[in-house]
Amino acid sequence: MAGGITEFLLKHTGLCPVSFHMPGHKGSRLYRQLGYGQFLDHIMDCDITEIPGADNLFQTEGIIQETQEKYRELYDVRKSYLLINGTSGGLIAAVLAAVEPGDELILARNCHKSVFNALSLGNIKPVYAYPQEEERYGIAGVVTAEEIEKIMEAHPQAKAVVLPSPNYYGICSDIAAIAEVVHKYDGVLIVDQAHGAHLKFMKDQPQAAEDCGADIIVDSIHKTLASFTQSAVLHVNSDRISLPILEDGLQKIESTSPSYLLMASLDLSAEIIREHGTQLFEKWQENLDEFYRKAENIPGLRLLRECSEKDGSMDQTKIDLDMSALGISGARLEEALMERNIFCELTTGNILMCMTGIGNTKADYDKLLEALQEIAAQESRGRQTTQDVPKDLEKPENLEHTKTSENPASLKIPWNKKRPLHSAAGETETEDISRCSGRICGASIIPYPPGIPLVCPGEVLDEEDIQYVLRLRERGENVIGIDEQNRITVISEPR
Ligand SMILES: Cc1ncc(COP(=O)(O)O)c(C=O)c1O
């Protein structure tokens, strides 16, 4: 065997892991069950290029056009584009189509890093909209229509707005209200729906941005539905955007060798929704309902099922677990589940997020429930022997909520700070982060996941940011923008 990546992957599949992380298909089972196994059997043979008859992603007239048309119909929009560089690529092209170089873009401060990349690629100035704080967990909550209106009033020249909904934890903003505000100011609304491609088809979940008046919506079909990683779809839903300019942007940022495997998987995912969607989405909802019902009885387990702001709603296909009442941080819970071959998507402080997808079966949810019951019981027994049992732990409603910042196992995330913003132009240098308090950041510092820049170019770092990044590093978490010697890029100071 080749070793390295291949060996890792084969070893991992050998564990028969339960996937509560991306992608949404959760392995070959779904395709085979639904009769698409032939494609999997010939996967290498299907890896072709633009031979005659195979159409061209950037000049669609044939088979790719047909798949785009399937998506246009499914999502009931004006035009759909297949993406082979994920929602990341779609967001960059959307921003470049909506904002002229040198102009301003209103973006939620918790946008994905691809939106920040669009700023530097397009020489676009950021105007930040700050999301509410989801107070119980110290994480980003909704972006309100009031916040957007306030900013649009103050920046009449800024004509495009972009925000994520659902965000990584499943919190959805009121897109219909935001679209109304944006259009009142003659702007364009781009919704990063990377985590919500399924919303259009699930009755008991928040409304999809496609149905709420957003102008451009980008859906990572791979995250929750049935296509391969990196495949996504961009929808144009109004005539406020010039299609030739958008198409030019897509050409600029996407590979000129688009993978037919990714595009075929998008085709199959559309087919699966068309042919089997009704029963698959009903079953998914049924499994979730049963999971939540049973999970409520696990002592010490809390679930973030509703968001605390009046303007938001939760996409409950993301299961946000919290066992901090038993003294278990998100990271420790993740480890305990991994020991049982259950792999999750994201931890932040006390939350462990399990990302469900169209390919999860009832057995997956049952295994997760069983593991959580076992972990809770083990932890409670451990506490009894050390005589450290919180009273009334049996009933979740009796659990006094521990704020993230009060829990010794977690970190307060300085994500929502309004930092002074300077020009990021000029010479840069690398410097030990511990000596960077008060310095202007020259390259984004991005904990990954969730891929939201903690400090952006032009923002001034302070001691709290530095301590937070160092703690993440100590815990072995992935932080983009800091090297192995803990050095970051800052703007050089005048000599
Ligand atoms: C909120 C958000 N937007 C966009 C993206 C990028 O999506 P993709 O992986 O399809 O490029 C991510 C990735 O996780 C994300 O979390």
How would you sum up this structure, described in words?
The chain has 495 residues and is an alpha/beta fold. It has 3 domains: 37-271, Aspartate Aminotransferase, domain 2; 290-395, Alpha-Beta Complex (Aspartate Aminotransferase, domain 1); 428-491, Molybdopterin biosynthesis moea protein, domain 2. Helices cover 35% and strands 16% of the residues. It is built from 14 helices and 21 strands. The chain has helices spanning 4-14, 29-33, 37-41, 63-75, 86-98, 113-122, 145-154, 175-184, 221-224, 243-253, 260-295, 330-338, 362-385, 463-474; strands at 18-20, 79-83, 104-108, 125-129, 133-134, 139-140, 160-164, 171-172, 188-192, 216-219, 232-236, 302-303, 313-314, 318-322, 342-344, 346-348, 351-355, 428-432, 446-447, 479-480, 487-491. The protein has a 7-stranded mixed sheet with strand order 2-11-10-9-7-3-4, sandwiched between helices. A 4-stranded antiparallel sheet has the order 12-14-17-16. Strands 1-15 form a two-stranded parallel ribbon. Helix 4 (63-75) packs parallel to helix 11 and helix 5 packs across helix 10 (243-253). It is globular. Residues 386-409 have low confidence and may be disordered. Pyridoxal-5'-phosphate binds next to helix 5.
The gist of it:
Helices cover 35% and strands 16% of the residues.
The biggest beta sheet, please? 7 strands, mixed
What is the molecular shape?
A: globular
Number of helices: 14
CATH architecture of the largest domain: 3-Layer(aba) Sandwich
Q: Please, what is the CATH homologous superfamily of the largest domain?
A: Type I PLP-dependent aspartate aminotransferase-like (Major domain)
What's the alpha carbon Rg, rounded to whole Å?
Answer: 23 Å
Strand content: 15-25%
The CATH topology of the largest domain comes to Aspartate Aminotransferase, domain 2
| Strand arrangement, major sheet | 2-11-10-9-7-3-4
**CATH class placement of the largest domain:** Alpha Beta
Number of domains: 3
Cα(first) to Cα(last) distance is 55 Å
Helix content: 25-40%
Mean pLDDT: 91
